[in-house]
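Predict the assembly for these two chains.
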Amino acid sequence: MKYTKTHEWIEVEGKTGKIGITDFAQKELGDIVFVETPKEGDKIKAGTQMGTVESVKAVSELNAPASGKVIEVNKELETAPQLLNEDPFGKGWIIKIELSDPSELDSLMDEKSYKDYIAEQGH
Amino acid sequence: METLKRTPLYEEHKRLNAKIVPFAGFEMPVQFSSIIEEHLTVRTKVGIFDVSHMGEIWIKGKEALNLVQKVSSNNAEKLSVGQIHYSGLLTEKGTFVDDMLVHKIEDNTFLLVVNASNVNKDFAFIKDNAKGFDAQVENQSDNTAQIAIQGPNALEVLSKIVKDCDLSKVKYYWFTYGNVLGEKCLIARTGYTGEDGFEVYISPEKASELWQELLEKGKDYGIKPIGLGARDTLRLEACMALYGNDIDDTTTVLEADLGWILKFDKNCDFNGKSILLKQKEEGIKRKLVAFELIEQGIPRHLMECYSEKGKVGFVTSGTMSPFLKKPIGMAYLDIEYTGAQTNFFVDIRGKKVKAQVVNKPFYKRQKK
């Protein structure tokens, strides 16, 4: 699993990348009540906004950790956005994409770097 | 930059692992567990809020009533000793310096409870208006802590702590005095949640003890500490205005749809009277409405509202309602769009999302 500075994760299996937000992100946001995702077939570009996550109080941008074509959207989030709070690395996954350039992942953080990164931010 | 103040309950919040944020010059708890959970606790059980940041301004003296009458939109002459009403502190233009609760303590003494963010402004404003009146204006905000106990179980829990008075006899928007842990405290049956409940004014020294006692005595009643996040969603469901969002010094009392706190018939002049009378005769051009989104999304403060013809207003407050589980909000709309069931669109990050005007409030408690 790899991590972005904006607190998304991506898990790669072959050419497919599964994307979500981290436990740190869901805790910072609080109760998540709405998730706006790209649609199946949409193309997303690494480092750019691909959707939004809204908690009761705040709106947060969802950024693409990698480029590719959306092949599946977690439909459960439409009725159960709280899955992002309850199980951010599991049932709370957001989309799956077909990676267009797997080498992009090299610039993302691994688990240790991400933990250090969070610690640096004073948490 | 001004350093942030802390309420006397700051250490309690730290101990309870609250998420602390800067608010109105204070370090305040925005949430303790989860906003939704806290919100539902107040709707179904009981919650306690640290509202010590609120301002307490006292007006005393022979002409105290006259001064209150001049700066306040409501008619304080109608208040009995022990009674409270909601009112606007008005500019000459009929817009809001602030909104407030006016407590009639004695014939010549009034307590105005105002927003934390406005205390200094309000105090200066009232003092300015007090010139020529035989009345003293005192800002006691730093010497007063305040805890709100809100929810269907509020009466039972607070009654376990307060001695020498029967809280069940206190009517809504009245206050009494009770013995709270050895201190004589003003206890008002008021709140900002849409639920039954009380607001206890207590010395900063005693505040922590009362807070702990409430959590202890309230255990069997499902009590929880509640942060500012849930305070905001609770008040929005009840359609209670938030200064800085729904009302400010650019919005008049009539535009804010608060005509009921505007008493033209009181037998004295008051700030903004002539302008408001004129506005009433000519008709307002925009009004604060409650609305729901019909399509998916969440409305937020300052999002723009549109009809097919163009821009028709803006959102003042919005959230996903934790109790009703739908996106709700309030907005100023051009008057022709303010009728119930009128459709319009909210621009949510470039997407026009369908909305509909609904009757206020979104939530009203069942009276026992």
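The CA atoms of residues 189 and 198 of chain B lie 4 Å apart. The radius of gyration of chain B is 21 Å.
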